[in-house]
Q: What sequence folds into this?
């Protein structure tokens, strides 16, 4: 009886051990399959890194919606990292890279100076930066749109609309893209109003509501009766509206998001 009981316990122990091994092996297979699919899904995706929240009125929300629509149409997955300042760009990009993402869009001109070490460290990753400035690395694709064409037309409208002959323009700082658009705007104004003056206020930031409000106030009291801007959000437009100053907007109408 004792041997029989011992044999039964041994058999039960062996069966339980086999079941445990089978369970562990099944878990390993499922984990490999899950993480493999997750990584493959990430590799078939596109990531965008934004300085502001994805729904911030201005170009941030426009970029987010446009990329999402494009990815939906092409059956790509879109990964959004928003609210990322320059100091966090590296860690956030590395997180996406370790996740398996191969295409990373950096939708902020301020990221430009932080790209070189990333491009050198991860040459297998395709980086895209919103810039018309200097080439940081041949591993980075720069992209932009022909804002200057629309800026010229906006200048024509401003020149036809102004009664004082003074037109205001707000921009962050002199850079290739900001100078390009400002010159196009000025040419548009002067094409219909050669004697008009274009007053420029530099805020030194892509986003700084207090500086933008101050710039609008200064332009209005300097005689400008119509203005436009080149900034990351529509704060300047809202400030102009609050001060009853006519303005030509730069972004899509995102008032429902504010």
A:
């Amino acid at each position: 009886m004792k041997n029989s009981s011992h044999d039964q316990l041994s058999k039960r122990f062996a069966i339980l051990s086999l079941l445990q091994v089978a369970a562990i092996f099944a878990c390993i297979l499922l984990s490999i399959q899950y993480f493999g699919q997750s990584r493959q899904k990430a590799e078939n995706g596109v990531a965008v890194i934004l300085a502001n929240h994805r729904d911030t009125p201005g170009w941030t929300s426009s970029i987010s919606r446009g990329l999402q629509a494009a990815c939906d149409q092409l059956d790509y997955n879109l990964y959004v990292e928003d609210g990322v300042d320059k100091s966090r760009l590296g860690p956030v990009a590395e997180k996406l890279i370790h996740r398996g993402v191969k295409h990373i869009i950096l939708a902020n001109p301020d990221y430009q100076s932080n790209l070189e070490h990333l491009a050198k460290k991860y040459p297998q990753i395709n980086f895209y930066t919103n810039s018309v400035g200097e080439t940081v690395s041949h591993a980075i694709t720069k992209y932009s749109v022909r804002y200057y064409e629309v800026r010229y037309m906006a200048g024509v409208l401003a020149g036809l609309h102004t009664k004082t002959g003074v037109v205001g323009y707000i921009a962050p700082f002199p850079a290739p893209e900001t100078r390009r658009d400002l010159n196009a705007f000025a040419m548009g104004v002067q094409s219909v109003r050669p004697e008009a003056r274009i007053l420029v206020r530099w805020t030194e930031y892509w986003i700084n509501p207090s500086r933008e409000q101050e710039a609008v106030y200064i332009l209005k009291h300097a005689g400008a009766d119509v203005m436009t801007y080149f900034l990351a959000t529509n704060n300047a437009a809202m400030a102009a509206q609050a001060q009853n100053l006519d303005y030509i907007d730069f972004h899509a109408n995102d008032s429902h998001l504010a």
Q: What stands out?
A: The mean pLDDT is 79. The longest strand covers residues 166-171.
